[in-house]
Amino acid sequence: MRAAILEQFGAPLILKDLPRPAPDPGEVLVKIAASGVNPLDIKIRAGKAAHARTVLPAVLGLDLAGVVEQVGADVTGFEVGDEVYGLTGGVGDLQGSLAQYAAVDARLLAVKPAALSLREAAALPLVFITAWEGLIDRARVRPGHKVLIHGGAGGIGHVAIQIARAHGADVYATTSPAHAETVARLGATPIDRTAMSVAEYVGKHTGGEGFDIVFDTVGGPVLDASFTAVRTYTGHVVSALGWGTHALAPLSFRGATYSGVFTLMPMLTGSHRAHHGEIMREATALADAGSLKPRLDPRTFTLDSVADAHAAVEQGTAAGKVVVDIAQTPGGP
Predict the structure, then answer these.
(1) Which stretches does DSSP call E strand in the chain?
(2) How do beta strands 109-111 and 83-87 pair?
(3) Cα 280 to Cα 86, 186, 191, 217, distances in angstroms
(4) How many CB atoms lie within 10 A of CB 79?
(5) Per residue in 2-28, pLDDT tens?
(6) Confidence category of residue 329, pLDDT binned at 50, 70, 90
(7) 127-260: what fold?
């Protein structure tokens, strides 16, 4: 099979022929149709994601969508020919999705939504799982909640808006003026982060009370701002990038709570992998109900142009999620 290999951090990916893997017990062999590209992929390639514990040489690619080619022993729920998707590799010693085939832990997979193409499905796993763990597992979003999502037009943010809306929340999202229309189309009230202070938008949209849930998808100063935007006593801040050093006093003085999300943990430790499969089944249900659809960059990339796909994400030129079409890559068995 053809695969994109990272042999040295900071170096370009190299296309090579590798043996096609065979599924061990508990695994399925997936013929990969598409691989989603995330900012984390760029950090891993650059050697700036120690938390991903990537073992070189490595096949990168976190998100996968494809067709089950072979079912290993002790696997139930999947059959040859099923179209599946999931957050399956590219960290630790797990093979990633920038290859024509991957043998993956069946617990990480779900049958893809009928309403979405394989390309669209490949755009969802990392961002959906992160958003679901933050809003549902940690913050317990429910009808009537006022939810603020920082970075509402981003990969995690645009999916978080749709999850919160599907659960009956009143959703607001910070964004730049250029993406305000996108946020509004998703059903959230856009907040121009360049024109309003935290105090101003908290006053305007919550009467100064603060938001029930604040979901930070940006990190750094945005997480600090989140601590001042949350509702007193009952409010909850959750962050997908809470890795810096932050003062907790603003949060403590509100009597509010905080949770962090580390989406990679089940892949790195082997623990709680079945929950990722459960979350992906929730994504399938939402998409097939018409409540979830990813934003895709319209350009076509293959393994032969994977460097261009990474450059589009790294340079911030993508108009939605970048997806590499593995099935269109020539060569290999």
Answers:
(1) 2-6, 14-17, 27-37, 58-59, 63-71, 83-87, 101-105, 109-111, 146-150, 170-175, 189-192, 213-216, 236-239, 257-260, 322-325
(2) antiparallel
(3) 7, 20, 30, 20
(4) 11
(5) 999 999 999 999 999 999 999 999 999
(6) low
(7) Rossmann fold (3.40.50)
Q: Give the residue from 131, 77, 76, 60 showing the smallest Cα distance to 291.
A: 131
What is the per-residue pLDDT across 277-321, written as a single tens digit (0 to 9) for each?
Answer: 999 999 999 999 999 999 999 999 999 999 999 999 999 999 999
Question: How is residue 284 written in tokens?
Answer: 């399938």
Q: Would you give the distance in Å from CA 133 to the centre of its chain?
A: 11
Sheet with 14-17, side-by-side order of all strands = 14-17, 2-6, 58-59
Residues of the chain with CATH 3.40.50.720: 127-260
Please tell me the pTM assigned to this model. 0.96
List all residues 6 or more positions away from 224 whose beta carbon is below 8 Å from its beta carbon: 246, 247, 250
Look up residue 208 and give its two tokens.
């100064």
Residue 260, helix vs strand vs coil: strand
CB-based burial label for 287 (10 Å; 0-12, 13-18, 19+): buried
- Decide: 229 and 202 in contact? Cβ < 8 Å: yes
Report the residue count for the chain.
333
Residues of the chain with CATH 3.90.180.10: 2-124+266-328
Q: Which CATH architecture has domain 2-124+266-328?
A: Alpha-Beta Complex (3.90)
Give the pLDDT score at 333: 42
Q: Which residue's entry shows tokens 């050093």?
A: 245
